[in-house]
Amino acid sequence: MTITEPLLPPERAARVRASAEHLDFEDPALFRDTFARLYAVHPELDQLLPNSEGGQQLKYAAMMEVILATLDPPEEQELELPGLGQMHVLFGAEPDYYAWLSEAVIAGIAAKLGDLWTSELEADWAELLSGVSAKMIAGAEALEADL
Length: 147
Known about the structure:
Blueprint: H1 10-20, H2 28-41, H3 55-69, H4 81-90, H5 95-113, H6 119-146
Helix pairs in contact: 1-6, 2-5, 4-6, 5-6
């Protein structure tokens, strides 16, 4: 299953893209801040998602690129979000984890953007991450149904 329509309308997608231009998802400080926020609220995830600046940081940056790519028109998308969800369930990801991580990502982005952050951007990023999460969770559920 691939994405058949953009996860955000054009105006909202443009705001997310513009905000992302101010972010470097490969920045170790952004990675550390995001995961510190996650572990502060959900310390049980520390063992599942180790806060390392090696492979996990690169996976985070790559996933953020995938998330931003969902803003492109469907004909330009060859994303397999359900497949990514299946991969994550094999690593022990539970459906609640997506919302928890999304909250930490949004808080990390908000902190990094500072005065550029608005309530509109917060709603845009939240809807985008929710849509990505829903497609990944659907993939995970399909895998679990097949097991």
